[in-house]
Amino acid sequence: MSECTIRDKEPDLIADTAIPRGISPERVRTDGGIIWEKSTELVPYPIALSCMEQTVREIRAEETQERIWLLEHPPLFTSGTSAKEADLFNPRGYPTYPAGRGGQWTYHGPGQRVAYLMMDLSRPHGPVPERDLRAYVSFLEQWIIATLARLGIQGERREGRVGVWVVDPRTGAEAKIAALGVRVTRWVSWHGISINVDPDLSAFDGIVPCGIREFGVTSLKKLGVPVSMEKVDAILMEEWDRLVAS
């Protein structure tokens, strides 16, 4: 995916354009048959979709390895397959995109760690059996929870609510700190997770996040845990390794 290209489709034009350095994912390590990559600049959503689609095709054709891509987006909203137009009521001039993943509306922006996973689910991954989407989603939630625990935050699942939730010990308020949305194409997954490190939380006021009105959204910074994105990335990789080996 480090050689991913942008495909720009016009009525009579199809052109492939190389992605600028910094936006283009750069390899940071390869371990267990999985390539980890990171983009150091904000990645426009259409570019992310194009790169994921290209990588999914290559994985299905056995032309490349599985990937985990760490990135941040500029401010934008995405809609999942269950999204309702009425749940986007103040887009703030930010672009909106249909994502094709499961779920409803969410916000992406600077200060949010996004991890897109392109995985061949026709084979097992640690505790996740082959072709078991429910177990895969549960594994992603556990990955987030384990990462938060390393930072002193107790993340929890909630019945009927996808994602990871926390209770602020200072206020007792329950809020969502991480989201996930997955799409599977012929048993190759794409899209993934997002963890609120220090994003502009007011942007979530323009939507009903994930279709849930009763609860708010929080971040590591709001919970009193200021941490660098590099530290979050290091913990994500360490906890992935630990969970896959368990």
Automatic annotation (TrEMBL):
It catalyses: octanoyl-[ACP] + L-lysyl-[protein] = N(6)-octanoyl-L-lysyl-[protein] + holo-[ACP] + H(+). One of its GO terms (molecular function) is ligase activity. One of its GO terms (biological process) is protein lipoylation. Substrate binds at residues 101-108, 179-181, 192-194. Residues 62-246 form the BPL/LPL catalytic domain. Belongs to the LipB family. This is Octanoyltransferase. It comes from Acetobacter aceti. The lineage of its organism: Bacteria, Pseudomonadati, Pseudomonadota, Alphaproteobacteria, Acetobacterales. The gene is lipB.
